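Rotation project, supervised by the postdoc (A.L.). Task for the rotation student: set up a whole-complex structure prediction and record inputs and outputs verbatim in this book. Inputs entered:
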Amino acid sequence: MGTGPLLLLATLEGTVMAAVLALAAVGLSLSFGVMRVVNVAHGEFFMLGAVLAWAVAQAVPSAPLGFVAALVICPVLVGALAYAIDAGLLRRLKHDPEATIVATIGLSYILQQGALSLFGPDARPVEAPFTLRLQLPWFGYSGYKLFVVVAAALVLLAVWWVMTRSRAGLVMRATQIDRATARAFGINVDRVYAGTFALGAGLAAVAAVLIVPIQQAHYLMGHDPLLLSFIVVIIGGLGSIRGTLIAALVIGLADGILSMLYPPTLAKIFATLAVALVLVFRPQGLFGARP
Amino acid sequence: MLRIERLSGGYGPTQVLRDVTLEVPEGEVTCVMGRNGAGKTTLMRAIMGQITRSAGQISLQGQPLQSLPAYEVPRQGIGYVPQGRRLFGAMTVAENLEIGLMTRGKGAQTRETVLALFPRLRERLDQAAGTLSGGEQQMLALARALCLDPAVLLLDEPTEGLQPSMIQLIRDTVTTLRDQGVAILLVEQRVEAVLNIADRVAFMEHGRMAEITPAQGLVPDGAIFQRYVGV
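Outputs recorded:
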């Protein structure tokens, strides 16, 4: 394969990676931006989404139906679990930034080991809902992967609409700016926090359901999305959705292209170097507000 | 209208308010004065449920407020303009107003009434609140509170740092609201402003209500101001 087609293939792979990463990272960015909670368990919500997708797909005999059911049910289940965790755990800690880091570290182990106990250590495949292959002059490419990009873009568009055009988004943004004043205007901040935490976890679950026909589900799969989400959120600027999307595109594309052309470790080195440079020269991130 | 009885409270274990009793009647402006640290802002925050209240009662038209969570207090009809305005700076003027309207206001009708009071805000509806001038920001803070259609309005130093024309506009608005029957609790440091607008003046000292007196008959260089405000 010539350099041009190879670069095109790498770009396509990077775009898929960027789309899924953007979903997971926006979820993390929302919970930090609105709640000031660094959710170390975010990767485990991603993992739960994937493992539950396998369980739902097993329960529904037809592959397309099983996938669609998983795409609807898993984010709702993971979101509901996150809502309960916020109400039962994080609220009791008064959403204190330091205490919640420790709590979500503990939570990540509980979720991980819970998934191991319930679903076992094996990687579980989930069948893609369709097997369309797009035949380009130089290579064939999975139609499902392109579907992942489109689906992720639609979900992100919906998140943008909610945040900028809906009452729920208005309330979330007001809470993000000043929670005491938000309360003085009748906003139930605890409910906003629980809803935001649930939305963030739900987005991670959507990302996982979309990726699981490509990657398989297993109980340790939350590490990479967590690390990359943090890298993206730090580069983009904590709490900035626009920054998160742009950073996800850069890191996702870089990962796809570098992994295709060079050993995959180089892509991780690039991401880590990028985050280090941002932390040194622009600690608030590319689009974050200066504290 | 708003009744505060033997209220004590503060920030965590630090007690600031001690046994504060005050009534804010309908259609009157009650001014709270006192030196820095006397507890004026803390009293406002205690009414809004933003700080720990260790004892005492707060009631609005006979309904107790002290057991309600903070977000329920404005829903009962108490509007609050905090010190320093505390606008949602990254949000537009229209969005700031919407925050007030969605909680309690009567939608478009309330919005129109509020914008009629502050026509300049109508021209700036799509502008970010943080980019307004100081006077416009104060107008917006007041307008946002009025979007709650409040029976009681708490104003914490609303004329601080404003130019004279803007101070006059804020005073005129307060007078209009008082004439409409709104009960107003105003924290103010300028003696002249207080004498122009207040029906009663409550002096605080060391977290206690030291003296409450009708504004009529007070003079700018009176001993009472010397004693409690230091002017």
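Student's summary: Chain B touches chain A through 26 residues (CB under 8 Å).
Supervisor addendum: The longest helix of chain B spans residues 164-179.
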